[in-house]
Description:
The chain is of the alpha+beta class and 356 residues long. Helices cover 32% and strands 15% of the residues. It folds into two domains: 89-144 and 291-354, no CATH class; 148-288, no CATH class.
Amino acid sequence: LLGQILDHWFESEPLKATLATDAVIGAMASPHTPGSGYVLLHHVMGELDGRRGAWGYVAGGMGALSQAIAHAATARGAHIFAEKTVCHVLLGRDGQAQGVALQDGTEVRSKLVLSNASPQITFLELTPQEQLPKDFVQRIQQVDTRSPVTKINVAVDRLPSFLATPNTRNGQPLPHHQCSIHLNCEGTHLLHQAFTEGTHGHPSSRPMIELCIPSALDPGLAPHGCHVVSLFTQYTPSMLAGGRPWDEQARNAYADTVFDCIEDYAPGFKASVIGRDILTPPDLERIFGLPGGNIFHGGMSLDQLYFARPAPSYSGYRSPVPGLYLCGSGAHPGGGVMGAAGRNAAQVAIKDFRHL
């Protein structure tokens, strides 16, 4: 249990609760949920520029990371087709993957197909079901994809000034503006309370909020004097109690709750807002293809990790369809901006390619 790990190392309840947020981030789980300790480990494994467990902002925004990967690929001769929706995987008479068909009717032939779409989209939508074992299909259908996350992107006309450390007169970013700011995390009981509300179909009345201001380090993201604020919040259920939809009224009501909380820590925040974009779990699924809005393509619980990700006997990136590989967050070792699943899948695919 996460609580036991944190109690062993720390005494301060606000510190324990703040660390606990990385154990439940993206997960419909409480700090008291068995297995939550692994999710914390998952978020601090690896290193950045030689610093273990470190995280950083991508200069130019997260899209710049995708562009860097794209440039590296095209430099090696890859052809990238954006805005081309894949309709299904093409199979030969022997059941081997032979490429993909696009929605416009174009067929792209290849010896191997790697998918970084979710296991649900890859195997339940893009692959002919008759080519897959029934128990495998059932397993993919049963993957727990519940997500508590609502992402809110905010444009503000001035830097938030927090009561704990007010801004200086010149309005320049202070050290804490360049870090991840955790709100409503004074105690782990608050996280558990927020989780309980979410499991009953109610958006948290005091949500867990992780606030970042990337423009404090990367001024090019916003006009002079203005900033972009990224809010990673939970717990918001995919399905609201009573079957109520996540309509504009529900979205704005939840966002108002989040902003009211931030206002308590940083008076004047609400008045500084000049625009906001609210992405609830159904929005994250619709826009980005995340099943249930889950940023990891499936819960990072112990029953869905290691040899069981995405399904027992298929954790090695190969699928029941020869020549079709899974290389996204739904594959081992799971989500996060680390590229491990893609790197591992590429090595397996290259090994197989040599024998074709």
